[in-house]
Queue: 3 jobs
Job 1
Amino acid sequence: MKKISLAFFFVAALLLGNTAFAQLEVGKGSKFLNAGIGLGGWGGIGYAGGIGLGASFEVGVADNITVGAIGAYRGYSGYGAYYSIGGRGSYHFNEILKISEDKLDVYAGLGLIYSGWSWNESFAGFRGSYGGVGLGGHVGARYFFKPNLGAFAEAGFGVAPLQVGLSFKF
């Protein structure tokens, strides 16, 4: 996993190259892709601990407003998996907070997320699944160290208490 993440980061950095920064704007047509890991705690349906993989994609629909999708997966070797998929929206606060840093994007939002848990305890013969729709929320920031490549961190509920990873702007 560590080798794959490092290779992914290296290839993305090479592809995006060195170019000058323009003012980071979030408006109609802006596109963001976050891909990373979810750390710890809970999911939309209860405790699910561990490290998971997740991604979100959002498109600007108006100044400072984006909407999109989110998904996450966390497997438990031999026992089952936890997964989430849903829609979300974010408001980007740079303008209101008068953040002049052109590499930083501060945002927060809500989502509607279907979360499920499936299990297979072969030693005991139990199999099943459970799922439901719940409300998700997030507060996060992206920092772009290249015009189209950065890092993100989000705290929230519905997928994982903390998510970190790479962010791409299209």
Job 2
Amino acid sequence: MDTLQIVAWLALAIGLLSSLIILIDVIRHPQMMTIMNVVWPINGWFMGPVALWTYFKWGRIKAKDLNKDDNRKRPAKTFVSTTHCSAGCTLGDAIGVPIVFFAGMAILGSKLLAHYTVEFIAAYAFGLLFQVLAIYPMNKDKGIFGSFKSAVKADTWSLIAFEVGMFGWMAIVHFILFTHPPKPNEITYWFMMQIAMILGFITSYPANWWLVKKGIKDAM
């Protein structure tokens, strides 16, 4: 086992442990917005200790039974909004990867292009689902269709921004870092995906800031 594989195993273990810690806590102290009980553990997988710190600092105060004062400023609220977007994207991307791999898919002879296409579609689908699950409980008068329209407005640009960061890293991995890029059945691949998700989060944050500032998306 080479150094990169050891680092990959450590990163995956830390991410999964972070997810588990958050999951146990949201089970004990469920969030007021139900979908956030899913969002925070997903972010734990790729952000590890950063997700742990931000959850206990900015996320846990929104637990139903704790009733703490919400003194978060816009940067913190935008960060939480970005975790919501990133979780949907991450789940979609994670589901899209094995579909492409096991189906042996390629578009125009390119497996990377197949990954881009399938993962974007899956990420968008889950991103919209997560948005609807956030919007509808607070605005039931809009109905499902109205909530879906609001979700499209709120999530499209933030999702595109996320995928720009993620897909950009995937291109670097594919064309620059490796002579033979890792495959989804290798631990190194999932370490690269963790990095991709972090970069996607970073590129999505400014988009979420703009959407919240313009009132297109509610700060969470």
Job 3
Amino acid sequence: MSQQVVLPGFYLHQLAEVVAGYGVNTAEWLESLQVPQPQADNNAMSLSWEQFRQMVLQACELTGEPSFGLLVGQRLLVNTHGILGYAAMNAGSVRQGAELVEKFLSLRTDLVRVEVEERDDDYRLHFIERFDLGDIRQPVLEAIILAIKNVLDFIAMADANACTVCFPFAPDADSGFLQSLFRCRVQYQQDWAGIHLPKELADKPLLMANSGSYRDALEICQKELEKIQQNSSLTDRIYRLMLSNNNSFPSLELTARYFHMTPRTLHRRLQQEDTSYKDILDQVRQRLAIQYLDSGKMTVQEVAYSLGYSEVANFRRAFKRWHGIPPSDYLKQQ
């Protein structure tokens, strides 16, 4: 499945503006990547995964800035996120704003999804890659999470200082710089990526809440989401369905029923998109296998079981086909 990255032109425009600030001729640079000049508006731009990946990698190289993602993220304030940002500005609580992000983040980016997790006094926005971001994982996650933290800062005002931001990799910036950007505690080399906040902050009424404006914005968000879902390929929709179910993958028959078609019709439609149910399931398993192993919390046997393999040997063979080495060797390299 060829991955397309869809982002508002404004986001890519800000990325190019950061690069331009380092004296780079961005028109020539973007032309070499065969990327159209991004406009400072919220119209969607679609790039191939490789175009987007090279854009981020070369931006980091051209600027020589290890914290490039953070420099982009700091430019993405609440008023840059279109109708989603407007809805958040009128939310009645941080919880309501967080649930907006969880449901409608795909209106702004399909690179990650958000799961709101709540346990006792623990309230988290957990950012999960929709597919393996590979060598641009750090700048992308830093940019997106800082952008969402900017939203929380606006709607919760000074109370957002009580948040903690977590990243699953080592920092490329000093603590003072990070504090100036996030205005809260930042922890790197954690086992997850996201924002943690006290539950009392999540439920505190917001001063700027406007229930009428919120309902109107929510209705527009829902219509926009339905439009995206209708226009996306069947392959993408099944891929996302499987990811949302994690280790409880629906069978071909159940998947067909979910999309209101027979298994034969589903198979034919996927053939027209040069893929199959089996191929999509294989890609989802491949992605989740790396995610589970990288977490360091699961054994090879547990990963195999979680991915629906009845025999560990079958998982080992599949992993070696994907990555050229057995999962045990991958763990040793990690």
